[in-house]
Amino acid sequence: MSNPSSKVIITCAVTGSAHVPSMSEYLPITPDDIKHQALEAAEAGAAILHLHARNPEDGRPTPSPEIFRRFVPAIAAQTDAVINISTGGSTRMTLDERLAYARVAKPEMCSLNMGSMNFSLHPVAARMSSWRFDWEKDYVEGMEDMIFRNTFRDIKNILTEFRDYGTRFEFECYDVGHLYSLAHFIDIGLIKPPFFIQSVFGILGGIGHDPENLSMMRATADRLFGRENYHLSILGAGRHQMSLVTMGAIMGGNVRVGLEDSVYLSRGVKAKSNAEQVRKIRRILEELSFDIATPADARAMLGLKGRDNVSL
């Protein structure tokens, strides 16, 4: 969608399910840590908070609504930021497990991966010298033989169910084919504009981090949807985070940062919090004369139903 006001939405993905605690001592794994880091990120300028849950005992990703309830309502009580509940979970979860809390919360936004795919960080395991918890090594190495599942029927059923809740989506597109899958669901009437497309670069199994790929994804989305009908956001995984999201903003897009996507702030320097990444990209954007979207701006831009209509 064209952005005449030059306002950029910052999404912060607070913890995710791909990184394990041994990759960074700063990765939030307890409900209190997730809450604290999410609130700090919102205060720093994140208009949208993308949330996963973890077992507080060992940091393992969990779909448990009980665990989500230990931090999501508290976040909602202390910030107006848009709360976005993942439906991605992890490759170890069933579809019903991944949807469990979103079905209860009926949030303003959920993430939705636009296809089944290989999704792996397994090469990282060879670079790890020690592991904090005994589940982590098998979890990371096991990604080599795991598939993230979202079939066309899965996606259709999610869109149909959540349409009744008034929930809108962060459509996660890891490759050009995912844009065409999104176009299919638009063509059959299950998705209406404005669309929020999260283009993801640098995940093994998806499109690479080359800058030319960002131009290709942007041009393809323009051709399929018309720029007036969608808002693009950019996610650069790992060390490509800041450079790609900055390029994306210059191309008229929005940005996503957070410890789900990268545990680093700069080369060799770990981010001590999600807020550090938010503050960094905010500074870069403001120095480029962009305005940072507030939660109210994000709601208006994305056509969200508002906080009063959720069950967090």
Summary, kept brief:
This protein is of the alpha/beta class and 312 residues long.
Give the integer mean of the pLDDT values. 96
Largest sheet: 8 strands, parallel, barrel
Distinct helical segment count: 11
In what range is the share of β-strand residues? 15-25%
- Fourth-level CATH superfamily: Aldolase class I
Structural class: alpha/beta
- Determine the fraction of residues in helical runs and give it as a percent range: 25-40%
Query: Over all CA atoms, what is the radius of gyration?
Result: 18 Å
Regarding quaternary structure, what we see is: single chain
The strand order across the widest sheet is 2-3-6-7-10-11-12-13
The unreliable regions are none
Give the SSE string: EEHEEEHHEHEEHEHEHEHEHEEEHEH
Into how many domains do the coordinates divide? Answer: 1
CATH class category name: Alpha Beta
Q: Per CATH, which architecture?
A: Alpha-Beta Barrel
Overall shape: globular
Strand count: 16
First and last CA, distance: 29 Å
CATH topology: TIM Barrel
Task: Give structural attributes.
312 residues, alpha/beta, TIM Barrel, 8-stranded parallel barrel, two-stranded parallel ribbon, 16 strands, 37% helix, globular
